[in-house]
Amino acid sequence: MQPLKSLSLIFLNKDLRRRILITVALIIIFRLIAQIPLPHVDIAGLRMFFEQNQVFGLLDMFSGGAVGRFSLALLGVGPYITASIAFQLLTMLIPQLEALQKEGEYGRRKINQYTRLASVPLAFIEGYGLIKLLVSQNVVRIENNWDMFMVLSIVTASSVLLMWLGEIISEKGIGNGVSMIIAIGIIAGLPQSIQSLVQVVAGNPTQIFMACIYGLIILAMIVVIIWVTLAERRIQVTYARRVASSRTASNVESYLPLKINAAGVIPIIFATSILVIPGFLAQLFADARSDWLRSVANTVSSLINNNYVYASLFFVLIVAFTFFYVSIIVKPQQIAENLQKQGSFVPGVRPGKETANYIHTILYRITSTGALFLALIAIVPYLLQATTPEFRTIALGGTGILIIVSVAIEIMNQIKSQMATQTYDKFI
């Protein structure tokens, strides 16, 4: 009865109900766009190509099968994510952007505007590269420049439209719109994964035991992901409070939360972006006229498609990018300065440099745990597929589960916040 009561309370909240309906409507629009195919494509050949390539299969999973269908949502929100990551890095390198970022809401809106503008040429470039690759594999047939321009214009416009839908969801719906679109795309691929699993088991009943083991591993991954996503290291902080009337002072105890997985899924996206490049170039030059270039391309392609090699590279890159990204978003020196300005301190640690070093040490330790967690979650499915090739076509992996769980937790927290606000308003 408790879930039904909670559900009824959610829909009794007028503002929350409106946000949920807006989100559902925009998601339906996104899925309709993802179902409309573009011309000049061999669907059967395209699906076979993505099943045989690790990196491009991951891209197809992120798009909910839109890439495998060569649909209008071919690029998804990928260009916008690339632009967002680029501007996060540029704020470290360009003083003007760093100053703009510190200007609060105005600076954030300005950087978001630059990100949107950068997404357009990035969509055109990424679309051109992907289409040229598919043409070289004889799964897409574009015979003249005009057809190429038309297809590129359509996929670029669709990517911008999805970016806009994501921002509308963030502003007027529930959750982060871009993350929601990616998560829905992954969820949309679940029926196909389940169908593939059923076909494997039906074709070979001896695989039932392995399928059960595979399912239990997936459930265990979900539990661990939820636990680590919510886990945080709390640093005790004392705030000095002075009461002027009685001329007495007292301390208020609080804490500074540091998430174990502060980087989220960004390191996985970084690592995927890096691994796409050699795989893309290898496929592009697989039929080159030069013997040595063709040989190198075939070697790189075979390495990338080897589950053990791919998993090893993926693991190293994720760990490296986790430390890199956490160093960008969490700055111990700045935290220590803010604590000192607020008249607060960590018990037993001197304010200033010693506090910064103390926070840095703790951050390094928990980031090590978070980095290993992300890397293991990301590579476990590839290791399973290497040991059980029959399950190679099952697309859902640790990355997809991590994104779905993160989005679900974010939506639940936002709904709780809305419900708490409604309850508070009744008593004021």
Please, could you describe this protein's structure?
- There is one protein chain.
- This protein has 428 residues and is mostly helical.
- It has 17 helices and three strands.
- It has helices at residues 2-12, 14-35, 43-51, 54-62, 78-93, 95-101, 105-136, 145-172, 177-188, 190-203, 208-230, 266-284, 291-304, 307-329, 332-341, 353-387, 398-426; strands at 232-243, 248-259, 344-345.
- Strands 2-1-3 form a three-stranded antiparallel beta sheet.
- Strand 1 (232-243) and strand 2 form a beta hairpin.
- Helix 2 packs antiparallel against helix 8, helix 8 (145-172) crosses helix 9 and helix 9 (177-188) crosses helix 17.
- It starts with a helix and ends with a helix.
Q: In this structure, how is the largest beta sheet organized?
A: 3 strands, antiparallel
**Alpha-beta content class:** mainly alpha
Radius of gyration: 24 Å
What average pLDDT do the residues reach? Answer: 77
The CATH C-level name of the largest domain is Mainly Alpha
- Tell me the series of helices and strands, N- to C-terminal: HHHHHHHHHHHEEHHHHEHH
CATH superfamily membership of the largest domain? SecY subunit domain
Separation of the first and last Cα atoms: 29 Å
- CATH third-level topology of the largest domain: Preprotein translocase SecY subunit
The percentage of residues in β strands lies in: 5-15%
The tally of helices reads 17
Number of strands: 3
Stretches with pLDDT under 50, minimum 5 residues: 242-246
User: What best-fitting shape do the alpha-carbon axes yield?
Assistant: globular
Label the CATH architecture of the largest domain.
Answer: Orthogonal Bundle
Number of domains: 2
Strand order of the biggest β-sheet: 2-1-3
Fraction in helix = over 70%
